[in-house]
Amino acid sequence: MLTVRPYLIKDYSAVRQICLDTAVFKRKTEVSKKILVQTECDYYAECEPYNCFVAVDENDVPKGYALCCENFSTFKQKFTQKYVPSIAQISFFSGVTAKGYVALYKMFAGYYPAHMHMHILKEYDTDELRDQLMDTLTEHLRSRDGRGLLVYVYEKDKDALRYYEDYGFNILRKTSGYKLLGLDLI
User: Fold this and answer.
1) Crossing angle, helix 158-167 and helix 127-143, to 10 degrees?
2) What domains are defined for the chain?
3) pTM metric for this prediction
4) 27 confidence band (pLDDT: 50, 70, 90)
C-alpha cells in the first residue's frame, strides 16, 4: 500500500529515477537523460519542493510523484535563467524545446498559472494512486488560492489522457503529438 506525502530533499534521486523510468521515449545516453530530468524534474524539486508530492511504499521509498509549479511567472524567471541555458549548453535543439515549453505554458498562464508532471512506476500505477496524488496536489493548490492547473500529455498515451479527462481536465490545445489540458480549481 502506497501513501502520499510531501516531497523531501532525500527523495531527489528517486524522483529523478522515476522521471527516467516512466519517460514516454526511453533515453539511452547520459546526455539525453540529463536533458530529460533538467526539463521535467529538477526545477520543481529544486525551486518549488513545497509544491511537490510523492507516493511512497512502506519503507518510505518513492514510487511515483506529482511535481508542480504554482505560479507561471516564478517558473518563467527561474527556469529561463537557470535551466534553459544549462539544457541549451548540452543540446541547442533541446534548449529551443525547453523555451517552447515556457511559451506554451505562457499562453494559458492567466487562467492556469500552475502546471504539473505526474509519473508513477508502472507496477504501482493505478487510478486510485493517481487520484491520491491529484487530490493532494489540487487541495494544496486550492489552499494557496490556486486558480487553474495545466498538464502536458503525449497524445498517444491514451491511458493518461483518459485519466486526466475523467479527473476533470479539458483539452486546451493540441501541438505536435501532445495535448495541453487544463483543470479549473475555483
Assistant:
1) 50
2) 3-146 (3.40.630.30)
3) 0.92
4) low
